[in-house]
Amino acid sequence: MKLLLVDSMGVLYRGHFAMISNPLRAPDGTVTSGLAHMLNEIQSLVARHSPEFAAAAFDHPGPGFRNAIYEEYKANRPPMPDDLAPQARAAPVLLEAMGIPVLRREGFEADDLIASAAAAARIRGIEVLILSSDKDLLQLVEDGVTVFQPGKPGRAANRVGPAEVPAVIEVEAGQVADLLALAGDSSDNVPGARGIGPKTAAKLLAEYGSLEAVYASIESISPPSLRRRLVEGRDAVMLSRRLVELRRDALPGLDIESLRPSRPDPAAIPMLEKLGLKKAVERLTSVRSAAPPPPSPDGASAGAGLPDDLEEVSGMVAVELVRPPSDINMAPGGFAAAWAPGRSRILDISVQSDSALLRGLAGRAGLASTDLKPVLHGLASCGIDWVRQEHDLSLLDYVLSPGPAEPAPEEADGAHAASRGTPAVRAVPQDPGERALAALAGCLDSTKALERDARLLALYRDVELPLARILVAMERRGVALDMEALGALRREFSEALSEIEQRAGDLVGTRVNLNSPSKVSAVLFETLKLPRLRKTGGGADSSSITVLQSLRGRHPFVEAVIEHRELAKLLSTYVERLPGFVSAVTGLIHTRFNQAVTATGRLSSSNPNLQNIPIRTERGRRVRKCFRAGGADEVLVSLDYSQIELRILAHMAGEGRLRSAYRSGRDIHSETSMAVFGDASFEHRRKAKEVNFSIVYGITPHGLAQRLGISRDEAAGIINRYFETYPEVEEFYRRCFSEAEAAGETRTLLGRRRFFPDLASSKGSVRKGLERMVMNTTIQGSAADMMKLAMIKAHARIAREMPEAGLVLQVHDELVAACPREAAGELTEMLRNEMESAACLEVPLAVECGSGSNWLEAGH
User: 817 by DSSP, 3-state: which?
Assistant: First the structure.
């Protein structure tokens, strides 16, 4: 048996640049050279070797574990060419539609996924074929693992087995990682030892055998200059070894059966025709007509063993995806269904009997899953609307035991660690059939546990569960990305970075690589002699943003570095990366809303993360300008709760002065400014605003001093005067801490809980951090609950009165919807009413509204 593994982007890049002077184009002019080359290479190897299993590996778009090890890893990589980006977006969707499984995992590169899949296959005695021109993957070559390096278009791939590796890279396969560690790799910005190139590294390994042996024999190495380079570069070499060595544990529990290609999706043919890939269409058509349905894992036909009479199925059916698609608009690689203990089957939606059964179940049984949203997406992509939504095991666990989860930005790391300690995260089986059985049993058990707490049961049943379906609708609707505006922004930001680099160099008299923390540190602490404030984990002087903020005002070079860092992050994290999230199926961005991640109950988003787009800077706001409604002649409507956390504080604390200010419509920041500073001047009101929002989360005098740029004593005085003005707030804090200490948990307005088992025994800074987290959860968690209630009310109202509109985004306290241009005013008022009536508080809720052709214009 054989497994074909494809280094997808490597092959795509090679094909694109091989035909750069005379590219292939689709009928609409889109360049398709890379896609055509990749599909031809895959189909050629499949025709010659007939692998039973196959997978195409892709890098995850976010930073990986190597970036955590070395900040400068791949820092000098140029952005993806404009003509290649659409091909990169289309590749995983096309491959999945053609029946080839796609591998992608957060934190890992495609090479790690290939190494891990290869290791899993070899354990089973399966021969591995790797399609890649990447020299890093040569370290995997051994008996049973062969690399095929793509040739020029039209030529056969070059076969590289154990005997051929030395001819390609001058060392044995087992020495490849050592060679790259010694010589470095400029394409990935892997440092290696300065002054040692590939030939010298190869000679050292030929003589000593391994990197460890080279350093064990360091005293005998000559000439002395080479020995000196090795000694001086040892740390860099050992770091490089960690960077170049491929991980073989990136796919824990991988079931090789999940890599068995499925029958091609009919949707692949129009996609290929649109791209002008005629040969691929011809091959795919012949494959579809000839291929039998794929076997079930146990060898039986996909429909065997299923109940002929749907009357056997009652109550609840658990459904899991066999292989999730990389694009939510594509059909998954099958479903696993379980309807009774020990009764589960794999369903192939392309088989008529399986499709009919799944549709029958959808009309009569309740749906359960370990994670409901991906299943709802998969069903929707197959045209199935499951009417009864029963249970989501991940949400049940989240409501019952919210503990290890992402901390809010305001929370200290040490304190966050101390707040954990409730039940461990549930282990979910890898096998989809077993996972469906686990969902069935787990949902029943967790529901019984939830029924002992009426508030938690209501939170789950009335808030979290209905919200899951709303989030699916939002994700499927998506938002459009203005590629022209984004391209202009990329050019502008790139030019601005060059100007900042030039200015920084002029300030210190030499050109400085501002992308290199070590080079920046050298200028700060050696050239400019600024105070050394912090060390990195490796013992070097830190030039982190925290250090830079502390050094502000000491030299204009510091300001230049801060500006460069902020702009470079905008460019690399959003402007350059956002196009990679555009669906090749719809042409829209379909961000994922994570419902069971944050410790406070807030939603987060990923792929892409839209929560962290900065809105306080002019440049950050301009990134928002690139987002627009997905439909023609549609606009975005934005509604943002005004001071919702302060209003919740006024309600929960029973603070009379705060309540009075909100009820009468007075400006709360001016109110605080008058009480704390004696006037409401512009500067004092600005500080009062900072005080109001900081004290909500129990900020310390030290923290407030840093935020306001004042002394610690001044900050302590401001906090004291604040509590003198609003005494019920201080009493409310004491009451919250006391109750959390006694119960080991705190609760939001709707009863959502977060555990603090170590609060009673904690001391010093850890306790202070935990106390801040108690307040953060109580206030911010209540605000999150309120936003979820508002979303449920808003979605229901839209469905009743304006079905052509729809919610598309939720970020912090903001809700964004899309609608026809002429309906913007009506939708704004409709949503304002629903948001302001989401909960009954002792103070009125207020919403700021706006609409426009893009997200920035819709802001307020």
Answer: strand
Q: Supply the pLDDT for residue 42.
A: 92
The DSSP line for 672-705 is: HHHHHHSS--HHHHHHHHHHHHHHTTT--HHHHH
Q: Tokens 């039973």 belong to which residue?
A: 52
Residue 711 CB-density burial (10 A; 0-12 exposed, 13-18 middle, 19+ buried): exposed
Return the closest-CA partner of residue 403 out of 382, 424, 431, 429: 424
d(CA 198, CA 182): 8
Q: Using the 8-state DSSP alphabet, how is residue 252 labeled?
A: T
Can you say how many angstroms the Cα of residue 296 is from the centroid of all Cα atoms in its chain?
A: 32
The SS3 call for residue 17 is helix
**Dist CA 368 CA 435 (whole Å):** 11
Instruction: Read off the pLDDT of residues 332-356 as tens digits, 9 standing for 90 and up.
Output: 888 999 988 888 888 888 777 888 8
Q: Give per-residue pLDDT as tens, 238-270.
A: 999 999 999 998 998 788 888 988 877 766 777
CA 323 to chain CA mean position, Å = 19
Return the DSSP state at 81. P
Round to whole Å and give the CA distance between 758 and 741: 8
- The amino acid occupying position 13 is Y
- Could you read off the pLDDT of 669-678 as tens digits, one per residue? 999 999 899 9
Q: Buried b / exposed e across 486-496, counting CB within 10 Å, b at 16+?
A: beebbeebbeb
Q: Are 74 and 188 in contact (CB under 8 A)?
A: yes
DSSP letter for each residue of 764-806: HHHHHHHHHHHHHHHHHHHHHHHHHHHHHHHHHHHHHH-TT-E
CB 421 within 8 A of CB 403: yes
Mean pLDDT of 194-204: 93
514: nearest Cα among 72, 43, 105: 72
Residue 68 to residues 59, 73, 239, 420, 822, Cα–Cα distance (Å): 16, 9, 12, 23, 48
- Residue pair 822/617 in contact by the 8 Å Cβ criterion: no
The token duo for 369 is 């899953």
Q: Are 313 and 307 in contact (CB under 8 A)?
A: yes
Mean pLDDT (the chain) is: 87
Domains and CATH numbers, the chain: 2-165+247-259 (3.40.50.1010), 294-473 (3.30.420.10), 482-581 (1.20.1060.10), 646-781 (1.10.150.20)
Please indicate whether residue 293 or residue 206 has the higher confidence score (pLDDT). 206
What would the mean pLDDT of 804-832 be, rounded to a whole number?
96
In sequence order, the 6+-apart residues with CB closer than 8 A to the CB of 579 are: 85, 89, 481, 483, 486
Residue 406: which of 71, 777, 70, 771 has the closest Cα?
777
At residue 154, the 3 state secondary structure works out as coil
C-alpha dihedral (187, 188, 191, 196), degrees to nearest 10: -40
Q: By C-alpha distance, which of 496, 545, 553 is closest to 517?
A: 545
Tell me: pLDDT of 600 over 80.
yes
The number of angstroms, rounded, from the C-alpha of 140 to the middle of its chain's C-alpha atoms is: 29
Of 720, 606, 703, nearest in space to 412 by CA: 703
Mean pLDDT calculated for residue range 814-822: 97
SS3 599: coil
pTM of the entire predicted model: 0.77
3-state secondary structure of 823: helix
